Amino acid sequence: MQRRLAAIVSADVQGYSRLMGDDEAATVRTLTAYRDLMVSLIREHGGRVVDSPGDNLLAEFPSVVDALHSAAAIQKALAVRNELLPPGRRMEFRIGINLGDVIAEGERIYGDGVNIAARVQDLAEAGGICISGTTYDQVENKVALHYEFIGEHAAKNIAKPVRAYRVGLSPATETAVKSGQGLTPPGIPSIAVLPFDNMSADPDQEYFSDGIVEDLITDLSKLSGLFVIARNSTFSYKGKAVRVQQVGRELGVRYVLEGSVRKVGDHVRITGQLIDASSGRHLWADRYDRRLDDVFAVQDEITRRIVDALAITLTRGEQQQRERRRTDLPEAYDCLLRGIDYLQRTTSESNIAARRMLEKAVDLDPKFAEAYALLSHTYHRDWTMGWSQERQTLERAFEFAERAIALDDLLPAAYRALATALLWQRAHDKAIIVAQRAVDLAPSDAHSHFILGEVLSWSHPEKAIVPVQKAMRLNPHYPPSYSYTLGHVHFLMRRYDDALAELNRVVSRNPDWLPAHGFLAATYAELGRFEQAQQAMREAERISPAVLAKPFIERLPYEDPTVLARVFDAFRAAGLAPPSQ
Questions:
Q1: Could you give the C-alpha distances from 278 to 138, 255, 309, in angstroms and in order?
Q2: What is the 3-state secondary structure of 474-523?
Q3: pLDDT of 142 strictly over 80
Q4: If you average pLDDT over residues 81-87, what whole number do you get?
Q5: For a disulfide at 332, which of 19, 260, 365, 394, Cβ 3.0-4.6 Å?
């Protein structure tokens, strides 16, 4: 006998006796098919099936993260299959997961670790997952699902009650926003910065107040001791009368910062107040009346007040980042904020307008690193969206990203820009290193985690899921691009049900998202559902026939040429008829 730590998955069928009593032969057939699917998904995620007597299944994994990913994939896949059955014949499994000590004897495992897995399985709903407290402690910040604490429960022959959590299978944002249940705050101080009210007489000055907030979020995201919600999510409350308690519950944070900006001539007044969302108590409030060229000092002061109020300890590197200035010219900063405002839209026209503003910013201040980083992004967007077919476009993206890093080697946006340029040059190893550097510099920046996942998706798709899910937790109202990248990854890993779910989620939110239609077509084609594949391909060709031409497909930055060939074959099977030359 040997002892070891393992992640144990226990599963059984809800209402199995009733199903057998109604139709024994049909139940056995369904159980056999479902068990084969479960075994396949367990092996795919690095686990092994220990035993499967009757309607039960016991498996173990060396990684508890892989165990949860496997369980979620199983429940999603079984839900799709159950849709094809009459309600009375659907077979729904309950799954429990525990991380604990087991005794191994040959291929069998025993002990408290297994008993606790079985206990939390009993607490799961049909088609659902429950996890133990030891599991939750390991996956909370690694797998971006919703976790609901359901109390402590006694387990047979276990001295202490077992903490148990119910797992929501939708990504964090859907569970929080659609169900109203909210998200669990992480184990470190967490904050959401709401859009500041524009108190200027000119409503067109709103870009300025929005830019102030974006800068604050960017600065706070660099602090490893703080969990910071992204702009996309906090700005979903813009113009709405909401209570901070609602914001804290829906976004899963403890603290909320709100304020206002009034810009008049070359002066600005900024107010801010930090609130404990759990109690509504104000931790501090202040007002700053300054000249425009002193606006960065105000941002630094607000950041410092938050750091002090939440007792966050800064590392030496984080202190250095706080001491760096963006630009000394208010005019250049104003151009940057206008460029950012244009980049919030995703059209060719807005991209051109953003580029003009950013070019003006670097003309005014040739040492403005952040403007160069965003200028690089405009060229990258031109290239990936197919608005430009010239190779020089990608070269400019690379050039401006490198210039940004040369000017400020602690700027996360510069590393994100360089990582995407390297990716499309097929320098995959370098792109991954650079994207990881962006994450290291801004541990709570959702976009940095997303870029890391996006870069990984083209060479190591199995490693891309965790950073994208981390981005989703940091940005619960995440943009369609997050779902698209997950859908693309699931397609590459042949998890077709998950791919269809994510890609359909994209097109429901943005019907003109060309790549999502393309990979919907490819997914349906590989499933042999050619009528749906052709319909999706027609949608893609409606949006942009040129982008789906052979030259564009061939420049997709897959590391493995056989993967590119597979994608091309799937497009062709879906009805794409590219030119022969």
A1: 25, 8, 16
A2: HCCCCCHHHHHHHHHHHHHCCCHHHHHHHHHHHHHHCCCCHHHHHHHHHH
A3: no
A4: 77
A5: 365
H or E segment at 248? Answer: helix 244-251
Q: Give the whole-angstrom CA distance, residue 100 versus residue 373.
A: 46
Mean pLDDT, rounded, of the chain: 85
CB 302 within 8 A of CB 344: no
**Residue, of 560 and 292, whose pLDDT is higher:** 560
3-state helix, strand, coil in the chain (%, to 5): 55, 15, 25
Do strands 281-291 and 267-276 pair parallel, antiparallel, or not at all (unpaired)? antiparallel
What is the rounded distance in angstroms from the CA atom of residue 91 to the CA atom of residue 85?
Answer: 9
CB count within 10 Å of CB 247 equals 23
**What DSSP element (H or E) covers 384?**
helix 369-384
Task: Output the six-digit token pair for 274.
Answer: 């930090």
Instruction: Tally the residues of the chain.
Output: 581
Single-letter amino acid code for the residue at 395: E
Distance from the first to the final alpha carbon of the chain: 65
The residue ranking higher by pLDDT, 184 or 129, is: 129
CA-CA distance, 256 to 168, in Å (whole number)? 25
**Which residues, in sequence order, are CB contacts of 526 under 8 Å at separation 6+?**
491, 494, 496, 570, 573
Identity of the amino acid at 475: N
Residue that has been written with the tokens 């799954």 in this structure: 95
Q: Higher-confidence residue: 262 or 376?
A: 376
Rounded mean pLDDT, 528-532: 91
Write the DSSP symbol of residue 236.
G
pLDDT tens digits, one per residue of 296-320: 777 778 888 888 887 776 666 666 6
Question: What whole-number distance in Å separates Cα of residue 70 and Cα of residue 38?
Answer: 9
Nearest residue to 223 (alpha-carbon basis) of 143, 316, 285: 316
For residues 186 and 134, give the distance between their C-alpha atoms in angstroms, rounded to a whole number: 15
pLDDT of residue 171: 52
Q: Please answer whether residues 466 and 143 qualify as being in contact, where contact means their C-beta atoms are separated by less than 8 angstroms.
A: yes
